[in-house]
Amino acid sequence: MKSILIFLISQTILLPIIVGLIRLRRIDKSYQPFYRLLWIGFITEVISFIFIKGFHRSNAIPVNLYNLVEWTLIAWQFHVWGFLKQKPRIFYALVAVGVLIWVTENLFFGKITDFSPYFRFFSYFVIVLLSIRTINFMITHDRNLFRNPRFLICIGFIIYFLYMILYYWASTVSMYGKSVASSTTIFFLMAYINALTNIIYAIAFLLIPARVKFTLK
Asked: Residue 69: which residues within 8 A CB-CB, separation 6 or more?
């Protein structure tokens, strides 16, 4: 019952997907990497549920594959927004470092069937830093932050990925047989943190301005 409840709560990802679908033709292309990630996240949630409830198997493989796609698309999203746009080689090197960590951990060491933590800690930490950097820039350039979809998406990233770092830390500690007093609470609240960030993303998609149409007069 608990796994079904968590799955149902995770389906709040449909909120930003539906809002984005309704406004798809009007949404600026600079948000496309993130919107595609939402669709991939939804598909991964469904596949993971089938693995667990249908096949009674771990969902580690689809989740690990999703984590790699997540890292690539979010990094690309920040690049589209301006991160290292003038220094593409450095950007591609950063993405490649993440991919190399994933390949080393999941393929070379054969951990793709386990929830290997090192790539997650790296990617989550970098995403949080990029979100903070983007917000710091907007604070000095935007007077109405709370109506800025980039600001809201970055807030969602910070909330979600900081909690994910805490979540996988507790999970890793528990995996090695050490008890954390609040582990059960951390695991249970993860679904609600996920729902909160999905709501934030839905609001962000509502606030994304329409594409600018150029006309010749």
From this structure: 37, 40
- Cα 150 from Cα 142, distance rounded (Å): 11
Euclidean distance between CA atoms 178 and 122, whole angstroms: 23
In the chain, the N- to C-terminal Cα span, in Å, equals: 62
Rg for the chain (alpha carbons), in Å? 18
Residue 215 — pLDDT band, cuts 50, 70, 90?
very low
CA-wise closest residue to 204 among 142, 143, 161, 157: 157
DSSP tally for the chain: helices H, then strands E: 8, 0
Summarize pLDDT for 62-72 with one digit per residue, the tens.
Answer: 999 999 999 99
Helix-, strand-, coil-residue percentages of the chain, each rounded to 5: 75, 0, 20
The predicted model scores a pTM of 0.91
Task: Pull the structure tokens for residue 24.
Answer: 């798809």
